[in-house]
Amino acid sequence: MTEVTTLSVARTLDRCTTLGPGTRAVIWVQGCPLRCRGCVAAETLPFEGGTTHSVPELADWLGGLPDIEGVTLSGGEPFSQPGALASLLDHVRARRPEFTAMAYSGFRHEALRRGGPDRIALLRRLDLLVDGPYVASEQHGLRWRGSANQRVIPLTDRYAHVTGEPDTSAGVEVSMDGDGSLSWAGVPPTPGFREGLEERLAARGFVLRAEARREA
Ligand code: SF4
Known about the structure:
Blueprint: E1 6-16, E2 24-29, E3 51-54, H1 55-64, E4 70-74, H2 82-95, E5 100-104, H3 109-113, H4 117-125, E6 128-131, E7 151-154, E8 172-176, E9 182-186, H5 193-203
Parallel strand pairs: 2-4, 4-5, 5-6
Antiparallel strand pairs: 1-2, 1-3, 6-7, 8-9
Helix pairs in contact: 1-2, 2-4
The structure holds iron/sulfur cluster.
């Protein structure tokens, strides 16, 4: 595995209950090579931009968060920065061995397994993967994923039970940041949800962070 010490990040969130099992931190990485039609995270697609964080700095943040069971890696495309994310999970688990990891990817699991040592290293550290590109015509309000072609794949026993649970939308969470601006996290249940939500909030005078987001 390549030793990578920095990660390009679009946004982080301390607590979230709509992007994976239980209560989790979320890291949205910056940059995705895919261009799914209807992607609701357009601001995370360019590889330029974002904020560069050191892996130990992010590990300290995650390791110190109370009352979360793990982290969800979203984006952007987490498997475009697999070495840094694998290293991050190693750092966190040195302090919290029980810490779980879930990731989204626009690539299919089978392709990731053929994707080289860094991608395989990240796969081996994940408990749960949501794979495949977002397809707007297959968006049906499903749990944790934007479209029906995407699969929720347990990679360890930690979340093996989730595939037998109700497959309905986990909704979205709106949170207020330290500067008073609002952001949201979750999988939009319907196409166009983001635009409608942001228009309604703006009409009521709420200021939304430019990179308010999801995963789709
Ligand atoms: S939906 Fe995900 S995989 Fe597709 S373009 Fe957007 S960030 Fe990339």
